[in-house]
Amino acid sequence: MANIIFNTEITKLLGIKTPVMSAPMAMACGGDLAGQVTLAGGFGFIPGFGEEDVFRAELEKGRGILQGGGYKATSTTSPDNNILSVGVGFLGWKLDEPDGKASQLLTVALEARVSAVWLSFGNNLEKWVAFVREFDSKRAEPHTTLIFILVNSLQDARVAVEDLKADVVVAQGNEAGGHGHGAAPPVAALVTEILHQYPRTAGTKCPPVLAAGGISTGAHIAAQLTLGASGVVVGTRFLLTPESTYKPAQKAALLDAHATSTVRTLAFDVVRGTLAWPAGVDGRGISTQTSRDYDAGVDVEKVKTQFREAAKESSKDGLITWSGTGVGVVDKIQSAGDVLRELHEETVKAIRTANDLLIPSSTDA
């Protein structure tokens, strides 16, 4: 199975063999994880987050892993191999902040010749799409940065496809861990709706569509490919790797969790004071007393106080552990490369099993 290469729009666009992207999870991953995912045959993302020197170091970690592993980039967007075969994810509302810190990180990423930029959760994404396109147009050495746009609805997808001219659309369903629109439909429904609007027919203007949300196994991936998705984005599964920067207590919480352990809530942003997200956006994570109290209507200041006290005592109720609904089938810690290779083999097996459901009819011509 290791010699099998998936033939989808995203694998051809990125020059990869497995249609799996690791999500750009802030405070949970960096160059180590992204580099290992790309090296193993998928495509890794680094979050565009934090201080500039730390961000630069993460980019160089990713580059070092790929160079050390003998990775040979095969890009459809650059005439040479002087590119960094990972992507960087940016939050639109952070890019819009007047201090310019996030937008400077975008410039740093583009100067590093990353393969892709992922944009999400902003009310002015067209500005940043134009910024990337203009930067590329002025390069001394030609390079086109692929632009991934995250969408939570068909209307979002229309904007991404028709207005923003996205190179890749990431359809994030309600099952996804971390932040997303609380009213988003399940990922299967969202992917189906987008591809119904933009069918995969000759002359279609729709870019590759990736499915994101609750995807943890090869069977999940095979299901999305069968629906018509070009690939998938995996988050939670990659949190349980040595390369993830999640704390041991957070990884333990994930290992103890099951399919009904997560909840969509504003509680974790309220207690942290991170409420600048666009309207309708909340987060999915492991349910704790903090989220239960907040969602039950307990006084907000009391919830905040209890959360701070729990955090000081290293109690699980003082943890924020973002997680998707697929966490229930993630029961071990393994390297990012092994996760990618296992997902590849599981997907191949699932597709072959599905093919066995069909037998020739005696009445067939």
Automatic annotation (TrEMBL):
<keyword id="KW-0560">Oxidoreductase</keyword>
<dbReference type="GO" id="GO:0018580">
    <property type="term" value="F:nitronate monooxygenase activity"/>
</dbReference>
<keyword id="KW-0285">Flavoprotein</keyword>
<keyword id="KW-0223">Dioxygenase</keyword>
<dbReference type="GO" id="GO:0051213">
    <property type="term" value="F:dioxygenase activity"/>
</dbReference>
<keyword id="KW-0288">FMN</keyword>
<dbReference type="InterPro" id="IPR013785">
    <property type="entry name" value="Aldolase_TIM"/>
</dbReference>
<dbReference type="InterPro" id="IPR004136">
    <property type="entry name" value="NMO"/>
</dbReference>
<dbReference type="Pfam" id="PF03060">
    <property type="entry name" value="NMO"/>
</dbReference>
<protein>
    <submittedName>
        <fullName>2-nitropropane dioxygenase</fullName>
    </submittedName>
</protein>
